[in-house]
Amino acid sequence: MTRTPVNVTVTGAAGQIGYALLFRIASGHLLGADVPVKLRLLEIPQGMKAAQGTAMELDDCAFPLLAGIDIFDDPNKGFEGANVALLVGARPRTAGMERGDLLSANGGIFKPQGAAINAHAADDIKVLVVGNPANTNALIAQAAAPDVPAERFTAMTRLDHNRAISQLAAKTGAAVSDIKRLTIWGNHSATQYPDIFHAEIAGKNAAELVNDQTWLSDEFIPTVAKRGAAIIEARGASSAASAANAAIDHVHTWVNGTAAGDWTSMGIPSDGSYGVPEGIISSFPVTTKDGRYEIVQGLDVNEFSRARIDASVAELVEERDAVRELGLI
Ligand SMILES: NC(=O)C1=CN([C@@H]2O[C@H](COP(=O)(O)OP(=O)(O)OC[C@H]3O[C@@H](n4cnc5c(N)ncnc54)[C@H](O)[C@@H]3O)[C@@H](O)[C@H]2O)C=CC1
Ligand SMILES: O=C([O-])CC(=O)C(=O)O
Asked: How many CA atoms lie within 13 A of 10 on its CB side?
């Protein structure tokens, strides 16, 4: 093992996504089978004991790539030297909580974490926000980190992307590996828009192959957009292993690149492409190479897609305005 270990900070390490995520990071799935990692686990004081228990289990796996584990309840220490930060810990919505309350509670988490990243992370820091509302939490963290290039703050829509591929494969009988160029646009919420108009199945246009507008409008889009709620209903707990898997996919693709002829979906600060207001953290089709991403340009957006992208972006604008009013950005 000759490479310098990469420092990976994971917040919410004692939570259910954390438990599904840490073992895969330590076994090399996040960055590659030849990249040693040092884990920095960040929790709140009440989560420290459980995080220590998870660290004991990580030790017990004797992962050859795991070069160390440290556990913190202070973000300034947790993000020190971080090259990759996975912001998973968040305040869940509880009964009677309004959306404003949720944004405000999460502001109390993501603002100080953004500031700690600004002050202490490595120069090449890459941030993925998983904790909900992921896009707006990413915006809050990014606004608190003015010295870090804004494009390093991303939000997770890869779970939605993977869910959409799986639903499309089930409908068409195709293998998931034959499906390319699917896009999630907008917010990681029920307004998101999974777009198959540019997707390809074994090289053929997916929308033309499916040729079923009713399925698209009444089944595919709502199934993907409301899958999180369906999992909660079925499992009695929110998606954890699939969310952890998507976080691994997001960072792995960001660092190692998209395959030729394909793209992925990431929540990223808009540069104004496709009419999405600049600065909003919205999901786009992106290609990645050498640790950088670029929005896929020049796609025709039909009327059906335009209305759905606009609706999801309008929700993001509302969330941005709400956190602005709360003084969080
Ligand atoms: N973007 C996406 O696609 C998805 C996002 N999520 C979101 O991910 C988040 C985490 O989910 P779970 O692991 O299931 O929740 P969980 O409740 O099991 O774990 C959250 C953990 O975060 C910790 N935590 C809370 N505040 C913290 C802080 N300030 N610093 C460090 N740690 C903190 C808690 O102590 C807890 O251990 C939730 O917000 C959930 O809604 C879940 C699935 C998919
Ligand atoms: O809805 C939730 O709380 C979990 C989530 O984000 C998802 O599964 O997409």
From this structure: 33
Interval between CA 189 and ligand 2 midpoint (Å) = 8
Bridge partner residues of 155 (DSSP): 129, 267
Ligand 1: nearest atom to the Cα of 157 = 3
What does DSSP say about strands 6-11 and 292-295: parallel, antiparallel, or unpaired? unpaired
Kindly provide the ipTM of the predicted complex, given to two decimals: 0.98
133: cis peptide before it, omega within 30°? Answer: yes
The string of pLDDT tens digits covering residues 295-315 is 999 999 999 999 999 999 999
Judge whether 29 counts as a catalytic residue: no
Residue 172 CB coordination number (10 Å) = 16
Quickly count: other Cβ atoms within 10 Å of residue 279's Cβ.
Answer: 16
What span, in angstroms and rounded, lies between the C-alpha atoms of 253 and 247? Answer: 10
Pocket lining: 131 vs ligand 2, CB cutoff 6 Å: no
Predicted TM-score (pTM) of the model is 0.98
Residue nearest to atom 41 of ligand 1 (CA): 132
